[in-house]
């Protein structure tokens, strides 16, 4: 039977595909105020500004390609039962060939209702642009399928279950500052081998049983020994 490998990824995973991280110097949250573009209050105040912010990001993501690290993870399916739990809203893991990807913070290629039944149905956005004229079947404007600050993380429970059953947990490219997602690293059982990969890994406080590997995702994953 194949061992269960869970990859828990953050923005650093897609950095080598040219997608900005959030909290590095020059990151997205230096250029935008979270309160203006990534909260339910922002949507209430100025839905066009929020929609435009995600339209720009969607376009960048659609123009980007999976990097070597995304491809390496997909290739491990030959040897492991791999599940990717990602905080990223891009679809680069899927485009690299990963079969089981759980998006904790949503998927930018999808929209959902801004009305009361938001989790009922997700609408694929075929091009990069969502507009104010795009409505759900109940007539409410569509909003990006992303989890904003202050919102529940509907996939959290499922992600925790997956990590509780893992034999190997590989955490890559996350500053572990955003909860509840960051708390998932504590769900892995004692028997699980735990590794964290990040250029700034030495700055992060993680439980002592984690093996820390400093470096970029693409650089480290091509030589890491998981067997
Ligand atoms: N390879 C691996 N890691 C990298 C690379 C790289 N090439 N480049 C940068 N990193 C690391 C940084 O050192 C940092 O630790 O990626 C991490 C990115 O951290 P954040 O920008 O905070 O991103 P993330 O942890 O994914 O943010 C969590 O915050 O804004 C929200 O919803 C958003 O899902 C996101 C959440």
Number of domains: 1
Q: Averaging pLDDT over every residue, what do you get?
A: 96
What is the strand tally?
9
- Backbone structural class: alpha/beta
Strand arrangement, major sheet: 3-2-1-7-8-9
* Integer-rounded radius of gyration: 18 Å
Cofactors and ligands = adenosine-5-diphosphoribose
Principal-axes geometry comes out as globular
| Uncertain ranges | none
Oligomerization: single chain
Biggest sheet details: 6 strands, parallel
CATH superfamily: TPP-binding domain
Instruction: Compute the number of helices.
Output: 8
CATH top level assignment? Alpha Beta
Q: Roughly how much helix do the residues carry, as a percent range?
A: 25-40%
Approximately how much beta-strand content do the residues carry?
15-25%
CATH architecture: 3-Layer(aba) Sandwich
Annotated CATH topology: Rossmann fold
Order of helices and strands: EHHHHHEHEEEEHEEEH
Q: What is the distance, rounded to the nearest whole angstrom, between the alpha carbons of the first and last residues?
A: 14 Å
